[in-house]
Write a structure and sequence with these properties.
- The chain is α/β, with parallel strands linked by helices and 178 residues long.
- The chain has helices spanning 12-29, 45-52, 105-115, 174-177, and strands at residues 5-10, 35-41, 59-67, 80-81, 93-101, 121-129, 142-146, 152-153, 169-172.
- The protein has a six-stranded mixed sheet.
- The longest helix is centred in the N-terminal third of the chain and has 18 residues, at 12-29.
- 29% of the residues are buried.
- It binds 1-O-pyrophosphono-5-O-phosphono-alpha-D-ribofuranose.
- 1-O-pyrophosphono-5-O-phosphono-alpha-D-ribofuranose is lined by residues 40, 42-43, 66-69, 75, 98-106, 158.
Length: 178
Amino acid sequence: MKNDIKDIIFPEDVIQKRIAELGAELNKDYADKSLLIIGVLKGCFIFLADLARVIDLECEIRFLTASSYGFSSASSGKVNMDREIDFDVEGRDVLIIEDILDSGITLTALRAFIAKHKPASLKICTLLDKPERRQLPMTADYTGFECPNEFVVGYGLDYGEKYRNLPYVASLKPEVYS
Ligand code: PRP
């Protein structure tokens, strides 16, 4: 697996330090609130697990599934998403947790879907943001890192369902995905 890696872009210790900072920001911004965290599966699972443990607030953690990449390194443009929410959103302070904001297609669909359920507030936290790749206008309220415009894997992010378990974010050698 490691032979497929080109460069480590965000090492483990750098990610953990940034997560501590994001946690502190969330603890301040949501002090005295009860947070409904919605993780977007599958890519969010490691980021959410680490972030949740530095959030010192009463919170409920739920998940929705959304995907548009399949086994490709580019978005299909079509989001396959859960069509039902089996928990209460109305009147709640909702924070969506994503691993990466790229074209913006996934979060545009997901945010609109959650907004229909009338949350009191709705914000987005993403570990990585690739603003250069945006196809739809979308900004996150909390961002871990701006990511260079390279195909990245690790720390939850996959290529063809592999590499999610790497403890860092890395670029892949182009021959792996071309
Ligand atoms: C990835 C990632 C985001 C989305 C971001 O999901 O987890 O949900 O793509 O890309 P976008 O801004 O271009 O829409 P993916 O489809 O790879 O599914 P996964 O989370 O199961 O890996």
